[in-house]
Each structure stands twice: as C-alpha cells, then as structure tokens.
Amino acid sequence: MSDSETFNRVKVDLLKADNDGYSVYEHLVNMVSKAFEGNSKVRSGDSIPSFSKQIKHSRFRTTKQEGAKKAVLDERDVARAAEEKKLFHKPKPVVTTKVHKPTMFTTVTTTVTEPVTVPPLRPITEDQRFHKLCGYGLLSSEYFLLEQSMSNLVRDKKLEEAAFFGRVFGTEQNYTIVVSKRLLDPVADKIPVEKYSMPKPPRKGVDVPIQSEPPGVGLNRVTFWVCQYAGGPWTELPDVTPQQIISSQKIKKYLTGNLDAPVNSYPPFPGKEINYLRAQLARIWSSSTVAPEGEVEAFVAEDEEEEEEEEENPNAIKYQKFNPLTSEAKPIQLEEGIESLATSEKWVHTRPFIYKTGRGTQLPPKPEPEEDEAAEEPEDEEEKEPEEEPKELLQPIATDKKYATIKVPQEPKETEEGQEEPEEEDDDKEDDEAAEDDPTNPKRITLQSWTAHTVNNFYKEDDEAAEDDPTNPKRITLQSWTAHTVNNFYKKHGVVVVRSLRWPGACSWVTANKTSGTIYFGDGSKSTDAAFAPELPPPIQQEVDDLQEVADPTSMLEKLILRGEDPKENDSEDEANEDEEEAAE
Questions:
Q1: Cα(69)–Cα(64) distance, rounded to whole angstroms?
Q2: pTM of the model
Q3: How far is CA 101 from the centre of its chain?
Q4: 3-state SS assignment for residue 579
Q5: In this model, does residue 462 exceed pLDDT 90?
C-alpha cells in the first residue's frame, strides 16, 4: 500500500464525527491553527493536553456575551416558593423550667427541653397509588407538600383524627380539604346536651327556623379545613345550620374558589360561599363515607352513673362525653378473596343520615307545656306532619335511593302478513309508578345503589318474569353506586373500588391487606337522574275582591236599636224612606 493510500485511509478515520458532529480531524486542525497564532502558549509536548482541553472549552463559549438576557421570574412563583420553604422549618423545642425548694435554704431549678411532636397522621403519600386506581389524584410534588402542610396544621392546632378529604374544583381556584375531629375543650372533652329551644310560631302556617346542632353533634361533629393550593394557609370552615343544608338541597351552583364570594341563587342561600362549601361538604361526608361490612361496628357507650340525680339549677347546661360513631371490629375474613367485596351488599354507611330537617340528628323532645299554655293553645293533630323514623348507623348501601329508571325499547311485533303492529299507548302509568317502590314487581328491574361493575351483576334483570308479561315494557333501575375490582392479577394485590354516581368524584377502596379509605375529587355538585330544575317562585298574590256598598242606617233604625227592638226588614229603599218620614213627623 502506497503512502498516499495510507494517508487517505487515516484521514477518513479521523473525519468520523461523534454525536455532536465534531471529529478528531477538525480538532487537530483547530489546535494547529491556534498554535501558529502569536499569543499561543504551546512551547513543549507537556502543554499539549491542557491546550487540547482549552480548544474543547472554546467550542461551548458564545462570542457575544452581551446578547444573553437574565431569566425573569414571576413574583407569584417566588412568593409561592417562599411559603413552601417555611413548611420544612423545624419548630423550636419546648423549654419548661420548674423551681423546687426542698428546704428553706436550698432551691432546685430543673429545665427540660422537649421536641415538638406531631400527633399520628395517616401519610397521604402512601394512598397516592389508591387514588390513581380510583381514577383521581394529584401531582407527586403536591402530595409531598400537602403531607408536610397537614403535619404542620395538626401540630399547630392539635387536631385529632385528621385525614385528607379530597379536592373541590372551582371556576377560579380549587379547594383542598382536610377533615378532623371537632375541636373541643381539651380538659373536659365533653359536648353540651341539646335541649329543645325552638320558638313558638307567631301564627298558624308560619315556619320557624330549626335549631342548629351544637358543636360535636350530628353534622357538626367534624371540622373541615381548606386551602387553595398545596402549602397554602389553612382556613377553618364554620359550623353548618339546618337552614343552609335545606337551601343547598334546592340549588345547584358551581364554586368560584373565593370563600367571601356571594351565592346568587333562588331560593336565596343564607350565607356566603364559605357556608355553601361547608353545607356541600357535610352532605358529601354524610352520604359518601362508606366501609366494608364487618370492618367497623356501631359504638356502644357505657352506662355512666349519675353522681347527682337532682341538680340545684335545672336550667343549667348539661354535658355529655364525646363518643365516636364507630369502633374497629375484628378483622374481616375474606374466604372467597377480595372479589367478594365487589358487590353492594358488602358495604355500609358509616356517617349519620341527613333528615328532612337538615340535621344529622333528630330534634330533641319538646318539653310538655304547662297547664295554662295547654289550655290556650289546643293541639292541631291534623296539621302535624309525622316525624321521621330514626335511621340506624351502618345502613347497607343497597338500600339507597335509586339513581335513574330506564325504559328498555322493545322490538316491534309483526303480524301474520308481515306488517308491524302500531305501538300501543302506555295506559298503565299509574301501575308503573306504583311498581317503582316494589322491587319484586317484574316490570321494574332494581339494581343495587352500589352495583358490581361486572357483566353478571351490573343489571339484575328478571328475564323470566318479563317474558311472562310481554305487554309491559322492561324497566332498568340504576342506583347510585358501582363497584369493581382493579389490579387483580395477583390476589394479594387486588383492590375493590366503589364509585358514587350520585356524587361524582366520591370513591372508596379496600385492599386485600384490609386497608380502606375514602376520597372525593369533584365540583361539589350532586348529580340527578334528570335535568335540574330550580324551585319556582311562589304564585302571584291575587287581587282583593271588590268592596260591597252598604246603605247607611236611618235614624228610625237607630232608635229601634237603642230601644232594644228588632229592626224591620224593608223590601225596598222606598219603604225605608217612608218609615223615616213617619218617624220625623
């Protein structure tokens, strides 16, 4: 091989470029050209490696440094970063000093330094995976910041049983929700005994406001805390009133994200958005908090002996101990696997029911009126509405109200000649309405309020009963919940997810390791089976009837009345005038 061929072959190898398009041949050319410049520092072979490194660095330097601009940061991002930085500041330890004098001439001073501890809190970063299986969730960075923010909230406010409730979406900003046990007196840990305090109506037919539940009772036994972003300041929501619950059930309104925003609606809502948000959260908390059957049991309070049977002041406020709603039961046994919980019969409600009065508990008994009041105000038994029956805790979700009723279209019937028969009018509407409340009627196919999300259990149809009566169309009744199994490749990793149709965004889950929870991600509005129609205004008041003219009494009539005699009935005005003339003569 000649020298020229060898040179060309070596040159081809040196011209091979790397991923950045830079070759060894180009690098050598740059080194030689820089070496022949007057200001080159290459004097010996030892300086070649440093000179080669200098040539490589020059490739990444811009020639015009004045063209670079400084990055402009948004002031809101800087302020947000400063708030997030405060979440990781360790609080100062608690220093307590005690002075003890064992003798008159000696003094012992003891100083104890204790670090600030955080009450037990369920880490939401561990529930992140279950939130995703439910179809909802936040960013991983938000979970991390939110967990640290919740720890600071629990530590500063000394909360108990705090848990992440979810997020409510608004038109301008969102609400991140945390629920905790109601803040009570840390020493007594008791709640007042409620007494009947509703005023008397001024007249018949006038409603009086229903008395609110005291703190720690019914819908006010928990406290909700909200912030508008992960790491933001927390705001405590006020207690809810029955008037706010009843009014929220009659309207449907999107939240804005501003707690001080007015609620423009009809009927008018008694309060601002902070009160409307609290009412909606109470409704979601009451109807969407569920657990597998057998996981919890109703709490039974022990009978406490009364120290003083007769108090000196009967009008004094009485207190009772704050008891939990449920207590942990024995671990549930899943003999058939986690799939056995994917049905509505295996789930129960764990929160109080909301009555028509807008309360989570029934009104306390009305005190018996005194004898004088009972004689003045007779009772109208006909006008009184029957009281609602008390709802027991841990009601099966299968007994919930139906979500929708769907009429299944039927195939047209053909006559012998091949012509389709005209559709007959549905004359049995009354029977159909009555059949809605009768799940045994074959004309209504009732699905559980929490239906299993499987092919065999989604529609519980009674085909045999429907075939026996072909004149009645099929009806499919959907209820408010669905249940399905996810991540079921291995039995130990299976998860059953229960989803609400009545409150879109409310989900509960349970794992094979007996871990369960509830979460809500939604706009805070309840879904209905039909288009929402607001309440109509009251009817316009009718005009007053025309006044009837009556003739003035005559002097003769007045004299007869003064004498105590019955006035004569005149047949006409002429006879009355004649009597008046005779009396004048």
A1: 12
A2: 0.71
A3: 57
A4: helix
A5: no
